[in-house]
Amino acid sequence: MAEYWLRASRGGVVSEETGQEHGAAASSAVDPAAVSIALGGASRDKADAFLDEQTKILRMQMAGMEQEQRLQLSHLRLRRFGDYAKAAMEITIAIFVALAITGLVTLAWQAHTANGLVAEPLRVPPDFAARGLDGTTLAQQLLDKLNRDVARANQYDFRTSDNIAGSWLGGSTVQIPYAGVSIAELSRLLRQWLGNEIHVSGEVIRTPTGISLTVRAGNNSGSAFAGTEFGLDELLDKAALSLLKQTRPFSYVNLNFFSGTLDPDTIEVVRQLAETGRPIDRAYANLAWAAVLFTQGRFRDSLAPSNEAVRLAPNDPFPYYQRWPLDVALGHERISLADGRETLRLLKETPPEKIRTEAALQSIAECKAELDEIGGDFLSAAHNQETATNFDFMDYNQVGPIAIAYDYARAHDPARARAILVARAGLDDAFAISKFVLMSDGALPVYFAHAAIGDWRGAAASLEYADRLAARTGTEDELRHTLVWPWLSYAWAMRGDLRAAEDLVMRTPLDCTRCLAMRGTIAAFAGDELRAEKWFDRAVRDAPSSPLALTDWGAALLRAGHYDDAISKFELAHENGPRFADPLEMWGEALMLKNRSDLALEKFADAAKYAPNWGRLHMKWGEAFGYVGRLDDARAQYRAASTLDLSVADKAELARDMRG
C-alpha cells in the first residue's frame, strides 16, 4: 500500500490487478524523509496527513507552474508583437529606401532624356524691371513667340514634334532660380548634368541709338538685334526666329519655305543640316534642299536630294510623298505609281505617335485620289480629294478644289467642274501650275472642263494663257515642257492646227510618258501610223502598268478604223485600270462599228458606273439599244443625254437620233 501511494504521489497510475505503473513519470520533488517514514510502517493517520500535506505542496507547485506558464505565454506574445513591429519598421525603411532610389533613378532618367529648351531670365536695365519688364517677363515673351513660330512651322511637317530634329519634348520653360536644395532644384541640376536641354540666355542693353537685344542658345555665339524701346516687340520676333534657326533648323526652313522667304541664310541652314545629325535628320534636310530646288523650278535637280532622302529613311512615308510630285511633274508615270503606292503603304503602317494625325488622314486620302487618277478612276479620285480638303496640312484645303474640279472634268462631268471653278475665283490652269509643288496630280481643271464638251478653242486659250504666265516666272519651264505643252499640242490638233501641234509636241522631253503618248497621238492625226505606233509603244513600255497611254493608242486606232486592234488596246487598258470609263466607252463604240451592239451594251453599262454624267456615253448607249430593237431603253438614254453636257457635234447627232 505504501508503495502504491508513493507511486501515486509521483503522478503515476498503478493498476490494482498488476501493480504496474502507467502514465507520467513521478515528480522528483518528493521529500526523501517522507519516503523513509512511509516505508518504515507509519500509521494510517500519519500517512494520510503526510499525503494531504504533499497534495497541498503539489497544488501550490502546479498553481505556480500555471502562473509561470501564463507569464511565459504573455512574454512570448509580447516578443512576437515586438518582432512584428521590428519587421514592419524594417519593411517601411526598405520601402522608403526603394522609393528614394526609384525617385532618384526616375529623376536621373528624366534628366538623361531631357532635351527641352530652358530660358534663363534675361538681364535687363534696372528701369526695365521697374516698369514690369523684368528678365523673367521678357524671357517668357521670347518663348511665347518662339512657340508660335514652331506651331506655324509644324503644320508643314509630317512628324509629331518629339520626332523633329532639335525639338523639345517638354516644351519650353523659363527657369526661375530656387533657394536652397529641393526636389525641383535636384531635378534641375540632374538635367544640367545628364540631359540635353538647351539653355537660352541673353540681355538687353542700352546703346547710343536705343537698345540692343542679344540672345544665345547653349554655347552658340549670341545674335544681337538693335532697335528702340518702342520696337522691343519686333526685336523679340527677330530673336525668336534666330533661336528657331539654332534649335530647330528644319522648322526654320519650313517656316521660311512656305512663307516664300528663301534667303541665302535659309539655304545655308539646309546645307549644314544635310551634313550633320542622325540619318532621319539628314533625310529631312535633303527633302528641304529638294524643296528649295523645285521652288526654283529645278525639278530634275531636286531628284538627287529626294532620292538621297529615300535612301536615308526608307521606312518614312514623307520622302516618297515629296518625291511623288517631281515624278508627276516630269511625266515619270511608272515611278510616280511606285512612289504613290509606297507612300500609302507607309502612311498606314507608321505608328500613330510618329506622325501627325491630320497629316496622316489628309495624305492617305490624297494618295488614294492620286492613285485613282493614275488608274483612270477619276470619280473616286474626286471623292477622295474632297476628303483630303477637310484637313489643312500643307495648305491643301486652299489648293484641293483645283484637283477636285480637274477630277470631275476628267470623269466627263464638266458641269460639276465649272461649279467649283465659278465658286472660287482665280482657280484657273495658271494658278494650278503655280501651286503644283503642293499637289501631285498635274491638274489642269479649266482645260479639261473645256475638253469634256469638245470646246478645243477654249481649252487651247486656257493653256496658252497659263503658258505665257509660266514663261514669265522663269521657274516653271520644266512644267511647261512636260505638263502644258503635251495637252496644248492636243488642243491645237483637235482644232485643226496640226502643224503647230507637231512642232510643239516634238519639243517635249523623251523621258516623259505623257509626252511620248502625245507624240503618238499627234502622229496618228497626221496619218503617220508607223511613227504613231513607235511613240505609243515607247510610252507603254515606259509605264506598262498605266492605262492612260494604252487608251490613247486605242483611240488613235479607232479613229483610223482598225477596230480589232483598238479593242485589244482597250482590253489591256481595262486590265490596268478597271474603273477607267474611257476605254470601256470606246470599246463599246468599236463593237458597234463591228455591228455587235449587243456586246456594246455591257461596255456602256460598265462605263456608266465610273462616269455616270457623261453625255456622249448615254447617247451612244441609246444608239446601241436602238440597234438591238430596245426602243424604250434607247429613248431613256437619249433623254438622259439631252440633260448632260455634249459637244456641238454630239448635240446635232443626238437631235437626229431622237427624231429618228
Fold and architecture overview:
- The chain has 660 residues and is mainly α.
- Among the domains are: 88 residues, no CATH class; 139 residues, Rossmann fold, CATH 3.40.50; 114 residues, Alpha Horseshoe (Serine Threonine Protein Phosphatase 5, Tetratricopeptide repeat).
- It is built from 31 helices and seven strands.
- Strands 4-3-5-6-7 form a five-stranded mixed sheet, with helices on one face.
- Helix 21 runs antiparallel to helix 22.
- The N terminus is likely disordered.
Shape: elongated
Radius of gyration: 47 Å
CATH architectural arrangement of the domain at 117-255: 3-Layer(aba) Sandwich
Determine the N-to-C terminus distance.
152 Å
What number is the mean pLDDT? 83
Largest sheet: 5 strands, mixed
Quantity of strands, as a count: 7
Percent of residues in helices comes to 55-70%
Physical arrangement of strands within the biggest beta sheet: 4-3-5-6-7
CATH topology of the domain at 117-255: Rossmann fold
Which stretches are low in confidence, meaning pLDDT under 50 for 5 or more residues running? 1-29, 110-114, 163-171, 175-187
Number of helices, counting only DSSP H or I runs of 4 residues or more: 31
* Structure class: mainly alpha
CATH class value of the domain at 117-255: Alpha Beta
Strand content: 5-15%
